[in-house]
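Wait, can you check?
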Amino acid sequence: MYKKITIVALIISLVSNAVLIYKFFYQGEKVELAKDGRTEIKMPKENREFIMKEMRGFLESVQQINEGIAKNDPQIIAKVEKQSGTCKINEVPQGMIRSLPLGFKEMGFNTHELFDAMAKMAQKNYDRQQIQEKMNQLLNNCVSCHKTYKITAE
């Protein structure tokens, strides 16, 4: 009898946890279809300003990588890890990631990882062509994100 109750309780617990994980980490909230066809993400003004600042930082890092490639100087490229790499994820305002749709989160995390990868490539095995290929992947993320999402303040 106790074994059946334990199994039922375990199943209920697993299902409840799965629902909560989906709700808080994957689904996101406050997402609508904008007039221009993009997915509109509504968030507090402070969070929107944080994301816009982060995107401006991405653009500055892209410029630095291009400069490093043009000058054939891996040291310039290596610096972007601290400016736009995964270390920046720790600066995200509490609760903001939970509110974002899964696709947006995936692109964002992947973008940070690509900056890390390019910086590491510049530090270890500098190859302009390979870094340029990673840069193209990163820019594809940027274009896809801006075509897909629109962030508005509540």
